[in-house]
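Now for one specimen:
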Amino acid sequence: MAGRHFLQIPGPTPVPDRLQRAMHRQMEDHRSSTFPAFTRSILSRLPQVVHQERGEAFVFPATGSAMWEAALVNTVNPGGRLLAPRFGQFSHLFIQTARNLGYHVDVIEEPWGETADPFRIEAALAADTAHEIQGVLLVHNETATGVTSNVAAVRAAIDRAAHPALLFVDGVSSIASLEFRFDDWGVDCAITGSQKGFMLPAGLGILYASEKALARVDRCTMPRAYFDLRAMRANNAQGYFPSTPALSLLYGLDEALTMLLEEGMNNVAARHRRLATGVRAAVQAWGLRECARRPEIASDSLTAVVVPEGVDARTIIDIAFTRYDVALGSGLGELAGKVFRIGHLGDMNALTLAGALAGVEMALADAGIGMTLGRGLGAALQHWRIGAAS
């Protein structure tokens, strides 16, 4: 099909030309005497993305999902007890990963479309007077439902309960897109991957660890090998990695950090907020609703749109892809066939998103959802006009 493809899933996201050029390089000796300067260029700047000044950042040839495991096996002893709210597919998978590793997870069930409830977390921790719970697992931005939890409020709940549990935060679809304040929010382990806000192909897992979390690494008795932070810390201190790094992706990450920090992380978050408000205006103008149950919890990196009763969202997704070259995210878990998801994170601006919304609008009309063509797109454009904001 002629023209550009609109990749509007919540990740992988489009890779900017600038990053493709950075990755298009010959391999080099990752044990050479000059390599540490490159390693340090990356590791010294990664913390700036999440406003981290204490602790360390790590990069593995892996994915964000792998960092769930890396965070846990380095800080939680075998058979340890954890607490986790479950309110979407990725919070479910985080919990399942922990259980697969032999941990016991107390689950707080929330409706899909809602977020973590800090007061229920506080109550559960306050009841744990023996302090058996070693960590709280929280998905910051639930990609399945398009909602964003309040990390700072969860940390405040842990503190009110005077509980020593670590705070593990999945930031896969939020870090490098939404505001994320590692130190201010009291996060202990933050988890992400390369394929979303960092605008790269999948293949890098990134883990941020606090000083509190790092203090547990040497004492932790959980078996570990590839994900052992002790080996990673020792090698990183010398500017190297314990195993062969994903060089092409590291070249891209180095340039992605330059792009993000040139724009400024506050500006990155503001850009995503502006784009999201336009998409939400379009959804409302289409006469549809978001999966997010309250406006204040709606995600700025993606929007999950609920289709009318009797309509299969998979039909809309297929029409958008085959007729208009727009790739949309499908519903996951209990939302399969009930929602489609529009990603608006990473290398995105108002004009590229406007083209995608035009394709979505035509797909909706083709699927028999009655509307006046242009209404949703026009609502978004009104939000995005520079003149309208001045």
Notes: The mean pLDDT is 97.
